[in-house]
Model the fold of this input.
Amino acid sequence: MKNDDDEIDRLLAFGRTSAPEQERMLERLARRSPKRAIRAGWAVAACAVLAWAAARFFSAAPSDFVARGGIGAPPVIEVTCSPRCAAGARLLFSVSYLRQPASFAAYAVAANGERVWFFPEDDGSLPELAASIDKQVVPRAIVLTARDEGRLSVRALVLSTPATRALISAGVPRDQVLAEHTTEIEVKP
Done:
């Protein structure tokens, strides 16, 4: 009789586990030792933490693999010194993942609070950048001088429209800023 009931339960469950089978499974689990259940709980928690950490680690770095023409990473600005940050060296700027033509602005703030303008230049001109997901170096390099020695906070902006020094100092509207990057450099003598 019990076998017939089990068979009817299986048929009524339409291929899923029937309610009586689920109850029997839960009873078997309840009879397990508490230590085993605690170990299983810790194992599940450890797996969840590892999965979360892996997701954070792998999603934190910008990907070099972006579909051409598709929605990808925002523009990335890099600031480097060539060969090293010292008087006479060149300060170089590069931009990647730029999806539209743009203007480039940059300045530094010295430890004493003085602002040193790189772009716009004295005549108000800004370097223009072409739309390209490939890395492109800003066409004009900055030669560091003795007045630049010490710690500098360099701020670079990629703008959808050209801006003046006054507008940049006051704050460019957010909708015109495609990317911005601030980095600290130490210019050696």
